[in-house]
UniProtKB/TrEMBL annotation:
InterPro entries per UniProt: TPR-like_helical_dom_sf, TPR_rpt
Cleaved signal peptide residues: 1-26
TPR repeat feature ranges: 520-553
Keywords: Signal, TPR repeat
Name of the featured protein: Tetratricopeptide repeat protein
SMART domains membership: TPR
Pfam families per record: TPR_16
């Protein structure tokens, strides 16, 4: 899945690569050198070769080079750590074990090293050893030990079932420290792993250890909702009492979020109405009422804010404009936006005013306003960029082919701007012009080789829309190395494994992504893999979940067409 918007302790800056182009070229040319190659004994040369392998997305070669650099570095813990992490991502347990041994020698008490040990044990299927290592992390005198154990269980195992079994054992052994945040984190993990039984057990323990804690009630409500018991979830929230919203703004927002997830937008708004109000609170309340189509209450809220508004206050005028926009009182919204006096709010108001003009079908005026912003040298670069992106978005809504002209104008004024290039690449992909989408994403990578969003988007596009699967895997691996716990990147990784025919491995990764991010595209990917594996009933369940999340999702529609489900 593209990121529609790291561990780099031993990485060398791009400037050094260019300055040492001769060495780098030699490293690149000899990347498959045998173990006795002299370059492997040169710490700098091996590190450069390893980093060039990373840049090419060849993680197995990168792990080999970094391992060689670590061996000859006289105990550099950073090199040993990088070699270990790259090998783990590459799925190379043998090299990971060798690098981990070097890391252990140079930093024997390091919690990250001990977490990597547990990860390797899990990956190797040595569950008993892993359990002892995780237990040691959880009982560490270092207060952060449980966080390292949590990270291992959340992403280090072979599959969610293994992580669930391990967590169940640790709970039974009473290994989790008597810290509310730790119990909440592991309770949330059990919920993500679809272990409702284990979540209940953890919740019972939390209630006993931390009686009266509102966050516990919130976790229980969330667990009940996600397990398909909305009435019980609502009862759990109601049992907290509305006064719980007065404990603090974070608790108030969390309660409102749970009511919103249950579809009770009115109650979410009522919860937010308790306690002190500010511009952000008013905007969220107005948004909830607009979605509930409760114009009467929204109008009352609008009148309330308008009554206390101070005429020259930019933030209040911007807020009133947004509320009038929610009320579909577009003429009034435009008046508020036009009278925002200055500052950053003035620039936002000019952008929103253009959107309102578009809603009023005064398109020529909308384009005129946006063009004025695009050429306003007094406006900051972000605002001018946003003016191009907004015009393109509005033209796309109109199915106006001039969307492309806007992107071209933007790139003429702001050459190689990554946000505009990225947006244009998405446009090309929607138009099925994959070659041009690829070209724009590669332009981003030329100027910023570590742009994770572009790496993932290009890798996913090649995996999804071409047969260049090996190249796609290399790009996605580069993104994984930068952000190994990014759910969208994990989904991309699972999808390219599926395209490569590695169905069982793909299913593990896709399910891990779905446990982190309930998304229609990820659910559709899981469903298609299950369908191809002959597990049709399970596949239909995921197709149904995807429809519930976003019935018009393009990946879902393609998967349904491909499978005939």
């Amino acid at each position: 899945m593209p990121v529609f918007d790291s561990v780099r302790s031993a990485a060398l800056p791009a400037a050094l690569f260019l300055a040492l182009s001769g060495v780098a070229g030699a490293a690149d040319a000899q990347r498959t050198a045998p173990a006795g190659d002299p370059l492997q004994a040169d710490v700098l040369g091996a590190t450069l070769a390893g980093e060039f392998a990373v840049q090419a997305g060849r993680l197995d070669e990168a792990a080999d080079w970094y391992l060689a650099a670590a061996r000859h570095s006289d105990g550099d813990a950073g090199l040993a750590e990088r070699a270990t992490r790259i090998a783990l991502l590459a799925g190379d347990d043998r090299r990971a074990a060798q690098a981990l041994d070097l890391w252990r020698r140079s930093a024997p008490g390091s919690l990250p090293m001990r977490a990597a040990e547990a990860t390797l044990s899990l990956r190797s299927g040595r569950d008993r050893v892993a359990r002892r290592q995780l237990d040691a992390l959880l009982r560490s005198s270092d207060a952060t030990g449980w966080r390292h154990a949590f990270t291992v269980l959340a992403g280090g195992g072979r599959n969610p079932e293994q992580a669930g079994r391990m967590l169940e054992r640790l709970v039974a052994d009473r290994a989790i420290p008597d810290v509310l945040q730790a119990w909440m984190a592991f309770g949330g993990l059990a919920q993500r792993l679809d272990r409702s039984d284990l979540t209940e057990r953890i919740l019972d323990t939390i209630v006993a250890r931390f009686p009266g804690e509102p966050r516990v009630a919130l976790l229980r409500a969330s667990q009940l909702r996600e397990s398909g018991r909305p009435d019980d979830a609502r009862a759990a929230l109601q049992a907290m009492g509305e006064d719980a919203a007065l404990i603090g703004p974070d608790v108030r927002l969390a309660i409102a979020v749970e009511y919103e997830a249950l579809g009770d937008l009115h109650q979410a708004e009522r919860i937010l109405a308790k306690g002190p109000q500010d511009g952000r609170t008013y905007v969220v309340r107005a948004s909830l009422l607009a979605r509930a189509e409760d114009k009467a209450t929204l109008a009352a809220l609008y009148d309330e804010v308008r009554a206390v508004a101070i005429a020259p206050n930019p933030a209040q005028r911007l807020l009133l404009g947004q509320m009038a926009e929610y009320l579909e009182q577009f003429d009034e919204a435009l008046n508020w936006y036009d009278t925002v006096p200055g500052g950053g709010e003035r620039l936002q108001a000019r952008l929103r005013g253009a959107r309102v003009l578009h809603k009023l079908e005064r398109r020529d005026e909308a384009w005129q306003r946006l063009r004025a912003l695009q050429s306003d040298n007094a406006a900051d670069e972000d605002t001018r960029r946003d003016a191009y992106l907004l015009e393109a978005e509005l033209r796309r809504e109109d199915e106006d082919p001039a969307e492309l002209d806007v992107y071209n104008l933007g790139l003429g004024a702001m050459p190689d701007d990554p946000a505009i290039l990225y947006a244009r690449a998405l446009m090309w992909e929607r138009r099925d012009d994959i070659a041009r989408a690829e070209a724009d994403l590669r332009r981003i990578l030329v100027q910023d080789p570590e742009n994770v969003a572009a790496l993932n988007a290009l890798g996913y596009t090649l995996a999804d829309r071409t047969q260049r699967y090996t190249e796609a895997l290399e790009l996605i691996d580069r993104a994984r190395l930068a952000e190994p716990d990014n759910a969208a990147i994990i989904d991309s990784y699972g999808w390219v494994l599926y395209r490569l025919g590695r169905h069982a491995e793909a299913l593990v990764e896709l399910r891990r992504a779905y446990s982190m991010m309930k998304d229609a595209e990820v659910a559709a990917h899981i469903a298609e893999v299950l369908w191809v594996m002959g597990r049709r009933d399970e596949a239909r369940r995921y197709f149904d979940e995807a429809r519930g999340l976003d019935p018009e999702n393009r990946s879902l529609l393609r998967a349904l067409g491909t499978t005939g489900a």
